[in-house]
Amino acid sequence: MSDAFDMSGLRSWIGRTRVVEDDISLAAVRRIAGMLDQDPDSYRRGSALPPHWFGMFFADVARQSAIGPDGHARKGEFLPPIPLPRRMGAGRRARLHGVLHVGDDAAKVIEVAGIEPKQARTGLIVVLTMRQTINARGKVIAVDEFDAIYREAVPPGTQSTATTPIPAPADEAWSDPVLLDPVLVFRYSAVTWNGHRIHYDADYAREAEGYPGVVQNGGLTMQLMLEAAMKRAPGPLLGFTARLRRPLFVGQTARFCGRAPEGGRMACWVAAPDGSLAAEMELEFAA
């Protein structure tokens, strides 16, 4: 597998770091609150933010001339030059040590933590793991590891193959139906400065990547899972793990479900319209 391309060159990226600074501005916070259907005016300078909002700041801002054909920054700009054309989020593991406040001068240290080629049922993939450490007010706020999967191109005119569907659990204690509204997806992409064309360009999604339509943003799916779970939180959030199983598509209505908290933990998941498991998450809370 690793002979398919120069893994030694790619692995030289492991351990590389860079820093993205951000001021946690009132305007940005209010845009996020409005996007998540909260009262924007409930936030003021100095307000503590929900602990799971840290991932919606610190965007990579590439020059327009550095954008690749998929809407991301070209490989080698911010991320390793993995020579597979299709990139999708796969999962996260986060530990929370504090919260951001409106007005913080904060920074995210980004480290290339792993690059691993694998032979999947759908062909060669490479899993890229990025470790992100959020700092503010002289202390660590969160450590977040994010996995992205790079995949081979699909032949023109063919559909992207997905993993074999797994039925979503049927023992939920709560369930929230959520319309994956195109305006919500647009607003999330704007807030996070995500230009990936599969999230707004239906022709590109179908013709270049083999999807049946515009793809729901996986980061938004995870954020909505967190929002749903935090409505039932038994205590302060300490961390979470998440995995994206199958793509969802804009315009669908998905069910965000979960079990009652037990022993400081809560399991939640997303059921696609066909009843398959689209995403899952486990959250850990302080007593």
TrEMBL record:
InterPro entries hit by this protein: HotDog_dom_sf, Mitochondrial_HTD2
PANTHER family in UniProt: HYDROXYACYL-THIOESTER DEHYDRATASE TYPE 2, MITOCHONDRIAL (PTHR28152:SF1)
Name of this protein: N-terminal of MaoC-like dehydratase domain-containing protein
Organism: Plastoroseomonas hellenica
